[in-house]
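Input (structure):
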């Protein structure tokens, strides 16, 4: 375990160079506003469940506006998830396999870059592992541990609603006896009497229901329930159904996305593990991992969109299956070597291990080069963090990190901390690092330009801007996300469809500064932003 965690830390240290991406910046901005007493959905809009924003509160409180905030949080998360992977895998395959699975999981996670860093799925995984180990532990206070496991699953639910796909795993797997699964008449059984299992399952479900009811009650008491109901239970389903309704041959597209995000070799690991377990009559050890992998993939697939970070709920169990394949292959080579040794065929034994070394070396060069590149970026970050973030090597096309820092520096130089700024675009990082407050609840304009959101929200924004009259309005270019918004227009182009906002901008603001991806408008002195007669 210690060796595995040391390797995980070594693999994850370059994560400190991660910039704060669009998603993570949104979490930071909303968490910081929650600390100031605002209410989610009513005063702060996003279409994600509430859990991730409250999880970011201690991160923002502890680290402030540090540009390495996400990388540091991700290092802690990946280490904790790797530890969970180790213990889960070691429970069924042994500690050596657990160590290899933990390292492989960390590599896969880190190789996806800052897009996957400290995302909801990573936190969800930690709560699921916590729930599982609370149940799996033998000893006293079984009902209290069951209730605590239910609370942990409730927390996972509020991070992602589809975390409920893990509930059967936590309810059944710790009590599942798979020792007879490879007999001529395979069968499954429970390690405890059914009556005891029903009692513990009922307590667990009670904890889950309490966590769900408690959060709903808090939103009702705070007065934010109407906004939550609109955002989460009226608008969010329309967003979720959009990709299925508008994607021709959705099933074929979904298979292509799975292959794109996982790659051929990780997918092949599942088939190889299944084949080896069947051939070696080893389902009594591997069945729990296959069940967990199916649960993790169901959580991924139920989101319908197959974003890269949605596979985080599948990666640990995929790593365990590939570890099982690697261990079994090694054991096969070792068995052949032992057989040759009994015949005194030393040269043949050497040849067998030469073949094994080549097989083991085959997948290593690409990951090694990738890690070298990451450490080169880390060295660049260590020398000059600011420059590193502005010229980050692996930035997404819609993440205009250099432009965001240009606007941040401009706002710090030309405005006071108490001035309000509105960013018409998808760059909430500008709010967070500049320390300038957003006057609207829409910290990103995706809730305003998307065709699955109510048109009344656009009227709310214009009315808010007329009332609060922010010092600056920043308009972004080349930030279109058609898969989310349903439009190929970027924020600046979309103003043609939003005449009320364009009229307010033209009448009340002057073009102050233009960057490659952003234009900054400053409020005219004495300008009236009220509705024209």
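Output (sequence):
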């Amino acid at each position: 375990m210690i060796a595995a965690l040391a390797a995980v830390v070594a693999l994850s240290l370059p994560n400190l160079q991660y910039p704060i991406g669009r998603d993570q910046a949104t979490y930071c901005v909303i968490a910081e506003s929650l600390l100031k007493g605002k209410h989610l959905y009513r005063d702060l809009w996003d279409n994600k469940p509430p859990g991730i924003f409250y999880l970011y509160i201690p991160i923002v409180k502890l680290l402030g506006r540090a540009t390495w905030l996400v990388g540091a949080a991700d290092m802690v998360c990946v280490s904790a998830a790797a530890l969970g992977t180790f213990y889960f895998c070691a429970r069924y395959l042994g500690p050596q396999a657990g160590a290899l699975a933990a390292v492989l999981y960390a590599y896969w996670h880190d190789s996806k870059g800052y897009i996957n860093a400290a995302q909801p799925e990573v936190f969800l995984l930690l709560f699921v592992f916590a729930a599982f180990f609370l149940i799996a532990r033998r000893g006293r206070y079984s009902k209290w541990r069951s209730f605590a496991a239910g609370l942990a699953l409730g927390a996972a639910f509020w991070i992602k609603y589809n975390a409920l796909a893990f509930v059967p795993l936590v309810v059944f797997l710790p009590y599942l006896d798979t020792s007879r699964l490879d007999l001529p008449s395979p069968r499954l059984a429970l390690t405890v009497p059914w009556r005891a299992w029903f009692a513990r399952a009922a307590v667990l479900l009670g904890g889950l229901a309490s966590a769900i009811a408690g959060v709903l009650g808090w939103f009702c008491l705070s007065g934010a329930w109407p906004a939550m109901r609109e955002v989460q239970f009226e608008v969010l389903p329309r967003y979720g159904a959009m990709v299925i309704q508008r994607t021709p041959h959705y099933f074929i597209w979904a298979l292509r996305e799975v292959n794109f995000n996982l790659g051929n070799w990780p997918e092949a690991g599942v088939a190889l593990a299944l084949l080896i377990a069947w051939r070696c009559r080893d389902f009594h050890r591997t069945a729990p991992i296959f069940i967990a992998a199916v649960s993790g993939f169901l959580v991924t697939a139920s989101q319908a969109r197959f974003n890269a970070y949605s596979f985080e709920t599948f990666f640990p169990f995929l790593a365990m299956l590939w570890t099982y394949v690697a261990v079994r292959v090694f054991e096969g080579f070792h068995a052949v070597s032992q057989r040759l040794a009994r015949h005194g065929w030393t040269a043949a034994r050497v040849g067998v291990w030469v073949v094994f070394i080549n097989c083991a070396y085959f997948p290593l060069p690409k990951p090694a080069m990738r890690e070298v590149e990451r450490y080169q970026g880390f060295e660049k970050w260590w020398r000059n963090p600011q420059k590193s973030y502005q010229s980050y090597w692996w930035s997404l096309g819609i993440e205009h990190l250099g432009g965001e820092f240009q606007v941040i520096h401009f706002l710090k130089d030309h405005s006071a901390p108490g001035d309000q700024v509105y960013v018409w675009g998808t760059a909430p990082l500008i709010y967070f690092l500049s320390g300038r407050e957003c006057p609207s609840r829409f910290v990103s304009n995706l809730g305003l330009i998307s065709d699955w959101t109510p048109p009344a929200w656009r009227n709310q924004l214009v009315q808010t801007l007329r009332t609060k009259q922010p010092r600056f309005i920043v308009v972004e270019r080349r930030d279109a996300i058609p898969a989310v918004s349903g439009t190929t227009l970027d924020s600046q182009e979309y103003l043609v469809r939003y005449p009320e906002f364009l009229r307010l901008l033209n009448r009340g603001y002057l073009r102050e500064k233009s960057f490659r991806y952003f234009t900054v408008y400053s409020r005219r002195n004495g300008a009236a932003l009220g509705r024209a007669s």
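Notes: The CA atoms of residues 164 and 440 lie 33 Å apart. The first helix runs from residue 2 to 12.
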